[in-house]
Specification:
Blueprint (H helix, E strand, L loop, with lengths): L1 E2 L15 E4 L1 E4 L2 E5 L2 E5 L2 E3 L3 H12 L8 H8 L7 H17 L7 E4 L3 E4 L1 H5 L2 E2 L3 E4 L5 H6 L8 H25 L17 E6 L7 H9 L2 E6 L2 H10 L4 E4 L9 H11 L6 E4 L5 H9 L4 E3 L2 H23 L1
Parallel strand pairs: 1-9, 11-12, 11-13, 13-14, 14-15
Antiparallel strand pairs: 2-10, 3-4, 3-9, 4-5, 5-6, 7-8
InterPro entries: CheY-like_superfamily (IPR011006), OmpR/PhoB-type_DNA-bd (IPR001867), Sig_transdc_resp-reg_C-effctor (IPR016032), Sig_transdc_resp-reg_receiver (IPR001789), WH-like_DNA-bd_sf (IPR036388)
Organism: Simiduia aestuariiviva
Protein name: DNA-binding response OmpR family regulator
């Protein structure tokens, strides 16, 4: 991250005026302003859920912090409220979708399995922080406007009118469609989308630890099925087709449960790929996984996604060709 040099903006606001430090972050063609909170793309403000923007601005306060724990994020984003750690996982998963929807390339928030979250290093490396300014609330947002002169504010009234007109037009089209075309035969419902990128069996006795990762994989088109024990996993692979197994390493007090599952699969002549999502990945672990016939291990969500794309995606395509 690069830091621009401080500049003297002249006299400070009067003592009786409320002031706040304003920070503007630049990344790719985006500008992220702390006050008022907004995200601007190529000079145009973009709509993004306030809670998602709060998460991003919180992480940007310490962009090079090694990790943010669930407890820290809960205290900062839900002060004085009792919520579960799943709220953090869901917020991160939904925020990733929002960031991608406005055009931010790459993952902004990275999961550190079992440890928490951090800003992705590639995001931090391309980040620039503009000088701080003291902006008086009583004087409006003129100072921010000076730095973001190319950003034209969107008139809320005009946007509301456009939304209403679009909704009315859409309703008219739906009514006409129902009048002119007969109702189609209801489609057969399946437990997952018919066209999936791959079918994954995830074995972990604490599935809530993987809420964000599961949501991310499903948003990428994968069907993810979760079980808590090796016994359930062995039963399911005998009944259904899966393209990949993701497993934790220790379960139910057995630190080798994940490796023992791999050995049992290979002994039963199941050749589907097996990868591990665990706290620490090192050469001895990778060597043991390979020796038992496994395909790899990951300790970050990005590394896990790469393994999934490599093994589940390619295997699923092969399975479809064989089934035809």
């Amino acid at each position: 991250m690069t830091q621009a040099s401080d500049q003297n903006d002249g006299a400070r606001p009067a003592d009786d005026a409320q002031s706040e430090a304003v920070v503007i972050y630049l990344f790719q063609h985006f500008q992220i302003c702390s006050e008022p909170p907004q995200l601007i793309a190529s000079g145009t403000p973009r709509d993004i859920p306030p809670r998602h923007l709060d998460l991003l601005l919180l992480l940007l306060q310490q962009p090079e912090k090694p990790r943010w724990t669930h407890e820290e994020l809960l205290a900062a984003l839900w002060p004085g409220r009792v919520v579960t750690t799943q709220s953090v996982a869901r917020l991160v998963a939904d925020a990733r979708k929002s960031f991608a929807a406005v055009g931010i390339k790459g993952r902004v928030v990275e999961t550190l399995h079992g440890h928490g979250y951090r800003l992705a290093p590639v995001f931090v490396a391309g980040l620039t922080c503009l000088p701080h300014k003291d902006v008086s609330k009583s004087s409006g947002n003129n100072a921010v406007a000076d730095d973001l002169s190319s950003a034209q504010p969107v008139r809320r009234g005009a946007r509301v009118a456009i939304y209403i007109a679009a909704a009315i037009a859409f309703g008219i089209l739906i009514a006409l469609a129902k009048y002119w075309w007969p109702a189609a035969t209801p489609p057969v419902l399946f437990s997952e989308a018919q066209a999936v990128a791959g079918r994954i069996l995830w074995v972990d006795d604490n599935p809530h630890n993987n809420t964000a990762e599961v949501a991310d994989l499903r948003s990428r088109g994968y069907g993810v099925h979760q079980v808590k024990s090796s016994a359930d996993a062995l039963t399911l692979v005998k009944i259904y087709h899966f393209d990949l197994i993701i497993s934790d390493m220790g379960r139910h007090g057995n630190p080798l449960a994940g490796l023992e599952l791999l050995s049992a699969l290979r002994a039963a002549n199941f050749d589907l790929p097996v990868v591990y999502y665990t706290l620490v990945v090192n050469p001895p672990l990778l060597a043991e996984v390979a020796a038992r016939g496994g395909q790899g291990a990951a300790e970050s969500s990005d590394a896990l996604t790469q393994l999934v794309d490599t093994y589940a995606g390619s295997r699923h395509k092969t399975h479809l060709k064989t089934a035809q």
